[in-house]
């Protein structure tokens, strides 16, 4: 009889509620992929669908609203516009008097007029470079 290595199955009931929401599942080419928030650069909403952009340059489409995904993600994600949710860890520059944010992937995201004060207040404690037009 062969000896198989023993293993212990993790007790899923010990997971906290927050642990179960610490990733977003997406369907890609017939497979389910679990994305952790730290790999998500930004999200772009279009109606009932949202594009998720990752730090490795991939783009995923999910059939969830931006609002529902924002509720799943941590406070480091900033709602900068009705169509954009940005991971603050990937913001590298603040452009045009905080009306635009440049992300590490090169994407420039517009900040809505209503969100400028809130976003600049949240980003003021960071060492981001401000570039005026």
Can you put this structure into words, describing what you see?
The chain has 133 residues and is mainly β. It has a single domain (16-131), classed as OB fold (Dihydrolipoamide Acetyltransferase, E2P). 14% of the residues lie in helices and 38% in strands. It has three helices and eleven strands, in the order αβββββαβββββαβ. It has helices at 17-20, 66-72, 116-123; strands spanning 24-28, 31-35, 40-46, 49-54, 59-62, 77-81, 84-87, 91-95, 100-103, 108-110, 129-131. The strands form three sheets. A five-stranded antiparallel sheet has the order 5-4-3-7-6, with no helix packed on it. The longest helix is centred in the last third of the chain and has 8 residues, at 116-123. The model is unreliable at 8-20 (pLDDT under 50).
């Amino acid at each position: 009889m062969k000896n198989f290595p023993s293993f212990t199955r993790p007790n899923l009931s010990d997971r906290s509620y927050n642990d179960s929401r610490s990733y977003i599942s997406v369907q890609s080419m017939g497979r389910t992929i679990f994305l952790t928030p730290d790999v998500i650069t930004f999200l772009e909403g279009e109606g009932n669908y949202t594009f998720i952009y990752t730090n490795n340059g991939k783009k995923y489409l999910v059939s969830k609203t931006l609002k529902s995904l924002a509720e799943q993600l941590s406070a480091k994600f900033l709602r900068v516009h009705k169509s954009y949710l940005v991971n603050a860890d990937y913001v590298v520059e603040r452009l045009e008097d905080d009306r635009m944010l440049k992300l590490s992937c090169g994407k420039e995201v517009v900040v809505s007029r209503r969100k400028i004060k809130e976003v600049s207040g949240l980003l003021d404690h960071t060492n981001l470079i401000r570039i005026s037009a």
